[in-house]
Amino acid sequence: MAEMAVGKSKPKVNVFDSEEDLSVSLAKYTADLSEHFAKDRGAFTVVLSGGYLIDCLRKLVEPPYLETVDWRKWHVFWVDERVVPKDHADSNYKLAYDGFLSKVPIPSGQVYAINDALSAEGAADDYETCLKHLVDNGVIRLSTVTGFPKFDLQLLGMGPDGHVASLFPGHPLVHENKKWVTYIKDSPKPPPERITYTLPVINSSAYIALVICGTKEAPAVQRALGDGSELDPLPVQMVSPEDAMAWFLDKDAASMI
Ligand SMILES: O=C1O[C@H](COP(=O)(O)O)[C@@H](O)[C@H](O)[C@H]1O
After folding, report:
1. What is the per-residue pLDDT across 133-168, written as a single tens digit (0 to 9) for each?
2. How far is the CA of 39 from the centre of ligand 1 (A)?
3. Which of 128, 155, 229, 257 has the highest Cβ tally under 10 A?
4. Can you give the residue range of the structural domain that contains 86?
5. Strand-pair partners of 46
6. 82/183 Cα distance (integer angstroms)
7. Is 251:17 a contact under the CB 8 Å cutoff?
8. Is residue 42 part of a domain?
9. 59 in helix, strand or coil?
10. Per the confidence metrics, is the pTM higher than 0.90?
11. What pLDDT digit, counting tens, does each position of 186-221 carry?
């Protein structure tokens, strides 16, 4: 069983020789948290990102976890989504469905995809309204510290520029501190229109796993795990959940630390 943190603790940095080893460890970490929250509160709220993360969840859809995880307790959300149809190659929902959700028995009503019939602004408002309903009915907790929703686990990736979710370095969205979900129409990484959780929502979560593979990401990882003295931190440097943060790095991503 993973150690369950009480209060904010120092981030744990895990470095693996191979992506295969990383995937094995990430599966155990996620399954342990699933067991903890399913017993503790009868629900496990999990936030996915897009990108490479989904591939790193491959061991979670295999035995023993396929049988031992209580998938009926899972509620699945996206930290960001591209404003494209759900069957589009750029859709984070499609990526997660094809690589993860289609392989595990999570009830379909507990998978909260964006409404792909709406504009970016409409989809962000609609997603925030959906989260508010789930707070009202007790599926999602509210942080007593920040008043923002407190997800049990957010599984995040990071781009080579240090972006997390769709919060990009130097973009004003990084400083949004009122909304839960917002939108961007000029994303520097295509596609340009996306919705994203704001930093306060990311940081109000109980646990965050930052999952990063590859040499292109190594400079941003080095900066993020440095002394944090920069005046203009990267979005990844601003990530700090309420209870515990764990880094899952392959040896290429960790090559400069
Ligand atoms: O555009 C996005 O990029 C980040 C990082 O993706 P990766 O392929 O470099 O792992 C991802 O976390 C985010 O969800 C996605 O929309």
Report:
1. 999 999 999 999 999 999 999 999 999 999 999 999
2. 31
3. 155
4. 16-211+230-250
5. 76, 153
6. 10
7. yes
8. yes
9. helix
10. yes
11. 999 999 999 999 999 999 999 999 999 999 999 999
